[in-house]
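The record is given unchanged here:
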Amino acid sequence: MATEQASERRASHVRGVTVTALASLGGIAAAFVSAMFLGTAPKDQLALGIVGAFVIVQLPILQALGIDVEDFSTKDHLYVLFMTFSLWFVTWTILLTNGVTF
């Protein structure tokens, strides 16, 4: 019984780490894609579309990694959206501030 609880906790922990890591890396990748396609002009609204695309693409990737996305609640979807947007925002801000070009 204790091993079942330990294995369930481990599976839950691995699920959380996987979702967080993928959302974070997705946000960073979205920032670099935004910088490559839009340059350092922060006036273009297409960057939000790029972030949205990265959020949508994450769900099949999570499924391929063995995460049951059918079991996701609204809170889980909002978490993925928030983490992706946050990392995109911070990374793209750093790229814009430093004038990085590709």
User: Anything to note?
Assistant: DSSP finds three helices and no strands in the chain. Residues 2-98 form one domain. The chain has a mean pLDDT of 90. The CA atoms of residues 44 and 51 lie 13 Å apart.
